[in-house]
Amino acid sequence: MIDWMARIPAIVWAFCLVSFALVMDRWIPIAHGVVCQACGAILFLLGLGTSSWAWLLLARHHCLGLPTDAPPRLVQEGPFRWSRNPMYLGTLAIMMAFPFWTGSAYFWLACVLYFAIVGECHIPLEEATLRERFGMAFDSYCQRVRRWL
């Protein structure tokens, strides 16, 4: 089961899960306030900033491509100093903004599912590729830097 889930890009999973939550929220809306909306805006901006920063660093080092492609370099700077997966973390933060904006619990479900799919399907494949390519350097990086935060 996990194999087919890993073939679908994580950003597609995020889009589908948020779309599902939007549909469910239309059927059963939940009230929310201004403070929650402000928290959502902060999460959204933090997530967008983290993902963008990580993407720009990977692009600068020519490390963009399929997640299972061996990159030419192990990037350990910028947001990669405190998270091995800042792009996934940023996407999760963006997704976490939606329940604050809408007040809908369905978005929390989408966040949990995204976290599970990425953590169980995508990250293990990527880490296996990095471990094969960089060996002990990647193992050392894993000991210093947590998977998420």
From TrEMBL:
Chain ranges passing through the membrane: 6-23, 35-58, 87-117
InterPro entries: Metal_cation-efflux_comp, Phopholipid_MeTrfase
Alphabetical UniProt keywords: Membrane, Transmembrane, Transmembrane helix
Primary localization: membrane
Keyword match Transmembrane helix: yes
Domain of life: Bacteria
Pfam families, per the entry: PEMT
GO cellular component: endomembrane system
Topology of the protein relative to the lipid bilayer: Multi-pass membrane protein
Compartments (UniProt record): Endomembrane system
KW Transmembrane helix (keyword) present: yes
Database matches in PANTHER family: BLL3993 PROTEIN
Protein's name according to its UniProt entry: Putative Isoprenylcysteine carboxylmethyltransferase family protein
Organism: Candidatus Methylacidithermus pantelleriae
